[in-house]
Amino acid sequence: MDVQNSEIVELRNISKAFGGIPVLKNVTLHLRRGVIHGLVGGNGAGKSTLMKILSGVYNCDKGDMSINGQDVKFKRPSDAHARGIYLVPQEPGLFPYLTIKENVLLGLGSTLKDPVSKIRSIMEALGCDFALDQIGADLTIAKQQQVELIRGLVRECCVIILDEPTSALTSREVEALFEMLRRLKNEKDICFVYITHRLNELFDIVDELTVLQNGAIISQAPINQYTLKKVIQLMVPAGNGNGERANTNAASSGGNEDEGCPKEGSDYILEVNNLSGRGFFNVTLNLRRGEILGVTGVVGSGRTEFAESVAGIRKAFDGTITLEGKKFSPANPQDSIRRGVAYLPEDRHLHGCFLEGTVKENISSSALHRLFKFIIKKKIEVNLAKTYTRALNILTPSHDSPAKYLSGGNQQKMVFGKCLAVQPKILILDEPTRGIDANARKEIYASIQQFARQGVSIILISSDFEEIKNLSHRVFIMFQGRTVNELKKPNITLENITFSSFGYRAGADETETDQPDIEKA
Amino acid sequence: MKQKLINLILRRPELLTVVIIVLYYLCIGIVNPQFIAMDTFVRILYNGTMLILVTAGVSAVIITKNIDASIGSLLGLAATFGGSYLNTADPSLLIFIMITVGTGLLGGLFNGIGVAYCGVPSIIMTLGTLALFRGLLALYTGGSWIDTVPEWFLNFSRIPVLGLYYPTWITLILLGVLILFFGRFRWGRYIYATGNSLDGSLLQGIPVKRTVLLAFSLSGVMTGIAALIFTSQIGTIPTQAGVGMEIKAIAAAVIGGISLMGGTGSIVGAALGAVLLETISYSLVFFRVPGYWNSFISGFLLLVIVVANSRIEIYLRNEKEREIDEKVKRRYLQLAEKTL
Amino acid sequence: MGSLKKYLLWPSVLILLILIEFGIFGTFSSRFLNISNLLYSIGDFLYIAIAALPMTLIIASGAIDISIGAIMGLGSILTGLVWVKTGNIQLAFFAGLAGGAVSGFINGSLILMTQVNSLVITLGSSFLFSGLALTLSGLAGSTGFEGIGGFPDSFVNIANGEVLGLPNPVIILLGLIILFYFILHHTKFGRYLFLIGMSPEGARYSGIPTARVVVITYVISGIIAAFAGIMLASYFTSARSDLGADAPLTVITCTVLGGASIYGGTGSIIGTTLASLLIGYLKYGLQMIKITSHQTNVFLGIVLIVSISGRYFWEQISSRHKNKMALKHEELL
User: Fold this and answer.
1) How far away is chain C from the Cα of A166, in angstroms, using its nearest Cα?
2) Could you count the other beta carbons within 10 Å of the beta carbon of residue B180?
3) More confident site: A278 or A419
4) How many domains in chain B?
5) A59 in helix, strand or coil?
6) Which segments in chain C show pLDDT lower than 50?
7) Rg, C-alpha atoms of chain A
8) B121 contacts in C (CB within 8 Å)?
9) What value of ipTM does the predicted structure carry?
10) Scanning every residue of chain B, which has its alpha carbon at the shortest distance from the alpha carbon of C64?
11) Is A510 buried (19+), middle (13-18) or exposed (0-12) by CB count in 10 A?
């Protein structure tokens, strides 16, 4: 017991600022052997920054740390590796064109005598089923994560940091990962730091929990002293007692269940018939005016590919789209935007916003064709920016401050505003709340409902089944590239969504079947 | 089978270069069978040594996702410094080599320090040094040529050994060393890793800055060695020695399958790219195309090859994705059949 | 106010540098600091200053155009060729511009078609264009690097004459500066360029017609480069295929020194103009104190490298300072 609970890492009064904005303020953290330590907090709470300081990626501006009682100062990640600390980043940092063996051994130096046989034995212990000479790009995300774990284990690390390890895994892969972590914890006495946004996972895997908010620790205790509700409440900014889930529940399952929901039998604004394209095929669905239509499924089910075809970003091979009774086959995003279809992309940083641009430039970017013929009139643009920063409560010093200084949540609200500036009839939201803090999430939910009430038809694509359940009037579920089920109001339950997403009929046997329900319609 | 072929081409882009070279020879061979002869090949390898060397060097830089546009001037500068030493009373071969290759190394180090430690984007840094090195050359020579290279040094590249000339042998040996370096040595793999993913490399504790510095130094050294061969093959060093070499080298590397996005490509491919370019310009001389057409035709062919290369790559990538789609669709249909 | 300060800071530094430069050359040569001398010497680097304007557009959009030097030669040769063959100078002038437009169109469409880095395509096409220029000059009967001369006075006058006491090059430059300032900073097209430069994918997702914008920008660059080449032919009273061969490096130096980020997304016509004056007078002044243009390259390279690395270190230091202040502020609270 003594050995198991001995402290390895101590971080004292760590502070760090970026671009003049403090991200961590006097954080003190203790990590012990054989313990899985959960670390949660809204985006921008400083979890990732804290861990990057611990693993030598960043230098802290203030504070110090000690390992096994010795004071240390890391200048680069290899210093941290040498002291037994390894960070598994959110997106596994495998080199796509190098082999797995090279991926594991690069940067290791030549301290090991027989590294290959060591990797083999670790792979055997973890039950990995890939070969050492495969290249990084060939592996699934789950397997890439295993490679990252192997990297840490080959280096004899005693502290392994996992940053959102399950965000791209299927539930089966998550189970396998947890099994692996538990075994390593018990057998090798390794300390894991586990960062996640999926709070229910905490209770399956974590032993101790630290909650960060705005760069400071606000709660720290063994996991059995928490409930899910308590954790959520801790993460909601001060002054607001409601948990985020409770709040959205109230919004949709409360008194207004039928109020916002468009009537059965009213006209469809968008009909998609047997649409096929890269990554999806035979997608059939329809959308009413003012409706929030949930589209969900597991990662890789073709949701984003389908949405991008409607938004004109990629071409469909086959099938038809009917928009307001007229045939619609967009050749490029301009076509879609001009016909009133706005798309909020899944990848905010890559496709959604212009980080170097100002808030004003971001908001007007999709609407320039509508507002200006040739010359940009400053006043119109400023007014547009004002309208949407106010409507969506985007917190920014001014319209002229660069988007990169906004928090993730505010950036997402800004991209949301950019889509609204198009004045769309149909708004396709692809993972609108991924990776943003609870408060911004709540505001986005409210905005979605508000704009649906104003008559905008919304397709809400999300991996978060609760979000789908709470917001949608109707739900289509996609599985392996096609729509497999349509759920209407009383049947929209987490159980039904989950079963359909994995290609099962709710309540059926464990055989892998899927529901061609759509065919009947 | 088809999938395997596509994977092979995606992973080994230099195979395409081989195919293009063979096709080019066949086309020329149909027009004039005399072109396909051992002598042609020996000539091309002899003329191409400089280009092959600098292409191999610039490839190291491109693999790290940087670019080196200063090669032409650096080659001229190294040749000038070395050549002016050869003009002194009793030059020793060793010191001459040290001066020439050392100039290349210093130039490469300068580029590398600017890029890795001073935050200058590589294209700007090396365009800057392209001007800087050429200017230094002009300042040093005052605009006059160096044209008195000793006979013994000129003979060095004129007497064949085992069918090939010394410069060709040196190039082949150096290529072997580089292939070994990139394939087997830690720092060679670091160069690939840095170009593959900068963030990933940092996390793995790879000394990224030193790796970039190494790549630029390598390019500088190869340029220095090319300058040695320039001095021996050409015999005079004009003030515009090496002008345009950087364009040829970058083009050869790209044609040989070195991706400008970094992280992929091989030294063999780069060398093949250089051979292809050299073959084209040799064939123009072979057919006695008037001098001023040369630049036009090689520019045209170069663009055609770059365009064809990229179109083929885009097509293959699409094919590969379509295959995956088909697989998913088949699996789905099989499942649906079972349930019906 | 903060952002205003940032916008004005760099141009002020450039103006200061120009003044220092004038001071230094003034002490070397009393002839240098003569107003009419300063105005007339603009003709010497007019082609650089002109070509730097569209280059700012291209670099703002995150691309680059190395082929402008070759297009300058091609534009001047085309003008010369058509003049020799038809004797119609207007037709010749527009033939030159059309050649530039076609060259730019080829660049733009090749970049779109292949999705290869613009650097490589324009490096390759500069081979093609300069080869074509050389070939055409061969067709015109002047072999190799010989020029085509014998232009009428009306043509020679374009770059050498004056209106109301102002040399023509100054008027041409001013007109183009105003035009490009307007295009880049006040039109939808200019905004599109910046957005594409910040994030090409983001621009596509935002419904910006990126393909069209890229092609139009290269066509503009081609036309202006050809125009610069024609101005060179007018200035030197002869068209040569290698006119402007040294231009790309200087033009890129001016643009980047003027504040455009080589990664795209920023750029300023004012900055570019000031940098063009700085570099242009540097070359001119060095020539006055008997330093050849080849040797001037040393200074050019140093200016380019030092200005970029200087900005990098400046940003590092200022952000470190800002973070320290922010944490101090936090502690006080």
Assistant:
1) 27
2) 12
3) A419
4) 1
5) coil
6) 1-4
7) 24
8) 262-263, 308
9) 0.84
10) B123
11) exposed
What span, in angstroms and rounded, lies between the C-alpha atoms of A436 and A420? 19
Contact B124 C252 (CB under 8 A): yes
Chain pair A-C, CB pairs under 8 angstroms: 104
Burial call A170-202: b when 16+ CB within 10 Å, e when fewer? beebbebbbebbeebbeeebbbbbbbbbebebb
Distance of CA C228 to the CA centre of its chain: 9
The sign of the torsion formed by the CA atoms of A331, A337, A342, A343 equals positive
Closest CB from C144, C294, C308 relative to B292: C144
**Do A307 and A351 contact (CB within 8 A), yes or no?**
no
Q: Which residues of C touch A15 (CB under 8 A)?
A: 327, 330
Alpha carbon of B158: minimum distance to chain C alpha carbons (Å) = 30
CA distances from B266 to B197, B262, C120, C266, C321 (A): 17, 11, 19, 35, 44
Tell me if residue A482 falls in helix, strand or coil.
Answer: strand
Cβ contact C116–B239 (<8 Å): no
Structural domains of chain A sorted by starting position, each given as residue range(s) with its CATH number in brackets: 7-235 (3.40.50.300), 248-340+425-520 (3.40.50.300), 353-423 (no CATH)
Cα distance between residue C288 and residue A408, in whole Å = 56
Range of the domain at B71: 38-310
**Domains of chain C, earliest start first:** 12-291 (1.10.3470)
Helix (H, G, I), strand (E, B) or coil at A313: coil
pLDDT tens string B249-287: 888 888 888 877 778 888 999 999 999 888 888 888 888
Instruction: Flag the least confident range among A98-107, A225-234, A474-483.
Output: A225-234
Residue B152, domain CATH: 1.10.3470
Write down the pLDDT at residue A343.
Answer: 94
- Which helix (H) or strand (E) covers residue A31, if one does? strand A21-32
Q: Between β-strands B160-161 and B164-165, what pairing exists: parallel, antiparallel or unpaired? A: antiparallel
pLDDT digits (tens, 9 = 90+) for A37-69: 999 876 557 888 898 899 888 888 888 899 888
Residues C284, B320: Cα–Cα separation, whole Å: 57
Residues A77, B205: C-beta atoms closer than 8 Å: yes
Asked if residue B147 is part of any domain, the answer here is yes
Question: What count of other Cβ atoms lies within 10 Å of the Cβ of residue C179?
Answer: 13
> What order of strands is seen across the sheet that includes strand A216-222?
A85-88, A159-163, A191-195, A36-40, A208-213, A216-222
| Regions of chain B where pLDDT drops below 50 | 338-340
**B32 touches A at CB < 8 Å:** no
Q: Which residue of C has its CA nearest to B138?
A: C295
The answer to whether residue B137 sits within a structural domain is yes
CA dihedral C310, C315, C321, C323 (to 10 degrees): -160
Of the pLDDT bands very low, low, confident and very high (cuts 50, 70, 90), residue A241 is very low
Contact C249 B131 (CB under 8 A): yes
Per-residue pLDDT for A200 more than 80? no
Q: What is the dihedral of CA B122, B128, B132, B133, to 10 degrees?
A: 40
CB contact under 8 A, A110 and B193: no
